[in-house]
TrEMBL record:
Pfam families associated with the record: GATase
Residues annotated as transmembrane: none
Residues annotated as domain Glutamine amidotransferase: 45-215
Protein name per UniProt: GMP synthase
PROSITE patterns membership: GATASE_TYPE_1
Gene3D superfamilies reported for this sequence: 3.40.50.880
Organism: Chryseobacterium oryctis
Length: 277
């Protein structure tokens, strides 16, 4: 029985972050449930310039994080770009696939790297529990299989992905699988919320790892609380707090997307290792 090796890429640049804690918890729950030996290692990408060697791992989860996703001249940016290319290229030619999940800041970095559209600053910081809508392709997305349409997810971002370059998507074989809520009274383009980059690579602009506890913890930060009240109004803010631990909202999203991704990756890694044997 072969080991399954998971690399967690911490993109928080030395900021304390609930999301990364949640990613570790989900990975450790997967480790506990697995009959196989699951090894988890953490890499501090932005603060310590650490990047995993893709040959040493099977699964990668790259977190959200603060700041501008456009290049600012740091050493880690080149390393992360090379990492994205090496996973993508490896999977084209190798039977032994590598699986990668990109969250929020990592999702934005990858979308910029592959020149998929306009990743720009939002008018105001967005924070809250948002409805996320599946696209037609999203209806077929197995990671969303047990989620309603719309489903609910935690959103926390100063940047957004709008104006996708559909020719580029087609050229690379990538698909938009979720977009933000349609608001007919607001004349703004709907942001891209999730992309199926390839059979093995998936990314979300929202936070599939978030749970009610971490959300409440984040709301202790005045910036988040103010952003939520500014975006939704006080009534909606109070309603969101009240509905935070509804079983059919972020609890469902957390229980589905990343755990399903890990199970899918494991199944295929084990199948691949049988073929190799």
């Amino acid at each position: 029985m072969s080991d399954i090796r998971i690399a967690l890429l911490d993109m928080n640049n030395n900021h304390v972050n609930q999301g990364f804690r949640n990613i570790k918890e989900i990975s450790e729950a997967f480790q506990l449930k697995s009959e196989e030996n699951v090894i988890i290692e953490t890499f501090d990408v932005r603060y310590k310039n650490e990047i995993p060697n893709i040959e040493d791992f099977d699964i990668f989860i790259s977190s959200g994080g603060p700041g501008n996703p456009h290049r600012e001249g740091f050493e880690w940016e080149d390393k992360f770009s090379d990492f994205l290319d090496s996973v993508f290229e490896h999977n084209k030619y190798s039977e032994n696939k590598k699986y990668l999940f990109l969250i929020c800041h990592s999702f934005q970095l990858a979308s910029i790297h592959w020149k998929l559209g306009n990743i720009c600053k939002r008018k105001s910081y967005s924070f809250g529990v948002m409805p996320v809508h599946k696209t037609e392709e999203g209806e077929q997305e197995f990671l969303f299989k047990n989620l309603p349409d719309p489903f609910y997810a935690v959103d926390s971002r100063a940047f957004q992905f709008i104006e996708p370059n559909y020719d580029r998507f087609e050229e690379l074989g990538m698909k938009i699988v979720a977009i933000e809520k349609f608001r007919p009274h607001i004349n703004l383009e709907r942001a891209v919320m999730a992309i199926r980059f390839s059979e093995e690579i998936f990314g979300t602009q929202f936070h599939p790892e978030a749970n009610p506890e971490s959300m409440m913890e984040n709301l202790k930060d005045d910036k988040n609380k103010e952003a939520m009240i500014e975006n939704f109004g006080m009534e909606k803010y109070l309603e969101t707090i009240d509905r935070m631990d509804d079983e059919d909202k972020i609890i469902l999203t957390q229980a589905q997307i990343l755990p399903r991704f890990l199970q899918f990756a494991k199944k295929n890694i084990l199948k691949g290792s049988e073929v190799m044997a």
